[in-house]
UniProtKB/TrEMBL annotation:
Record field: transmembrane: 54-74, 80-103, 115-133, 174-194, 215-236, 242-263
Signal sequence bounds: none
One Gene Ontology CC term in the entry: membrane
Fatty acid desaturase domain ranges (all copies): 77-349
Protein name, per record: Linoleoyl-CoA desaturase
UniProt keyword list: Membrane, Transmembrane, Transmembrane helix
One term of GO molecular function: oxidoreductase activity, acting on paired donors, with oxidation of a pair of donors resulting in the reduction of molecular oxygen to two molecules of water
GO BP annotations listed: lipid biosynthetic process
Stored InterPro entries: FA_desaturase_dom, Fatty_acid_desaturase
Species the sequence originates in: Pricia antarctica
């Protein structure tokens, strides 16, 4: 079972890690996790709990849209209620189904992973673009300026001490929540297209016809998404189009705020490192230690919350073992924590989701006022 590993890190001119092979920490942890699954007789892929969650989240997303498309709703408040419920299902799909499937951790069957990965397309985004952004760039280089696409923000947001600072950043801890809420609206409209073209320039999608085919599929999937989530409801519902559009936006505001908050509090936190490569393009660390230095857990004691958000409160375990289904993170977390302590590697965690949000706000304020750093944390 390949788990902790040093991936092919020199991607399109991106940095490499100084320790090219697995460290003693990586080897020890890999053996212990492998032993855990062997001794417990547990498969590292999805279990029945995960399968039931898949059914639930797909139902929460699709059922309200099906009801809206019947044209039987005649009042305004049910429109907003149904769209918001669908938004909760959309967030559940994004955090709990497609995330595991695209990482290949949902099933040992690649076909199952591929088709469940298409649930990303079903909710208006794109699995091919996400795979580059998340699996390749973010998971290899968390918190590395320019390499980690999750911290490459528009000028009005500053998520790294190495990014250029503007005066407006001092207020980002206040207005960032609006942009978090708008994130999935941007995603299903423009962001996938922008990133697709940028990734092509970076050297991805280099096979003959790959970019064109991906673009055509992206357009087709998004057209289908807008057809059943917005256009048909506008046509069939007996009310003004602006009401339906408002409900659609409300759905995305809920989804965007949930997903962005959960993902960002794993890395944009006090105590996280923001390493830079040297002049030779090398980061002075090994891949596994880098994951722990740049990643934080939160709310480890809330089993229901963890189940609902796809185990993303165990971000440390996810970054070290992206090919293990998230339903197992709670069980392997003590092993990771104990091994990290043995090797003197930090293991970051916040006790609750609320405390993590407060720490995230503190970090956003710090990044909004600190001058550009040469190395390490802001300030």
């Amino acid at each position: 079972m390949e788990t902790v590993r040093n991936p092919e890190t020199y991607i399109m001119g991106k940095p490499t890690f100084s320790n090219k092979g697995p460290s003693d920490f990586s080897r020890t942890l890999r053996k212990r996790i492998k032993r855990h699954f062997k001794d417990s007789g547990t498969d590292r892929h999805a279990n029945n709990s995960m399968r039931w969650k898949t059914v639930l989240m797909l139902f929460l997303f699709l059922a309200p849209l099906i009801i809206l498309n019947t044209g039987l709703i005649a009042q305004i408040w049910p429109v907003f209620m149904l769209y918001i419920i669908s938004g909760l299902g959309m967030a559940g799909i994004g955090m709990g189904i497609m995330h595991d499937a695209i990482h290949g951790s949902y099933s040992r069957n690649r076909t199952v992973n591929r088709y469940l990965g298409y649930t990303m397309n079903l909710i208006g985004a794109n699995a091919a673009v996400w795979r580059i952004q998340h699996n390749v760039l973010h998971h290899t280089y968390p918190n590395v300026q320019e390499a980690d696409d999750d911290i490459n923000m528009p000028f009005f947001l500053r998520f790294s001490p190495h990014a250029k600072k503007y005066r407006i950043h001092r207020f980002q801890y206040l207005y960032v929540w609006f942009f978090y809420s708008m994130s999935t609206i941007a995603w299903v409209t423009a962001k996938d297209f922008v990133r697709l073209y940028r990734y092509k320039k970076m050297g991805f999608l280099g096979k003959k016809g790959e970019f064109r085919n991906t673009l055509m599929k992206l357009i087709a999937w998004k057209s289908l998404y807008y057809l059943y989530s917005l256009i048909l409801p506008i046509i069939v519902l007996p009310m003004a189009p602006w009401i339906v559009v408002s409900g659609f936006i409300a759905m995305h505001l809920v989804t965007g705020l949930l997903i962005s908050s959960v993902f960002q509090i794993a890395h944009i936190m006090p105590g996280m490192e923001y390493p830079l490569a040297d002049k030779n393009g090398t980061i002075d660390n090994d891949w596994a230690a880098h994951q722990l230095a740049t990643t934080s857990n939160f709310s480890p004691d809330s089993r229901l919350f963890s189940w609902l958000i796809g185990g993303l409160n165990y971000q440390v375990e996810h970054h070290l073992f992206p090919n293990i289904c998230h339903v197992h993170y709670r069980k392997i977390s003590p092993i990771v924590k104990r091994t990290a302590k043995e090797f003197g590697i930090p293991y970051h965690t916040n006790r609750t989701f609320l405390s993590a949000i407060m720490e995230h706000i503190k970090m956003l304020r710090s990044l909004g006022t600190a001058k550009m750093a040469v190395q390490g944390n802001p300030g």
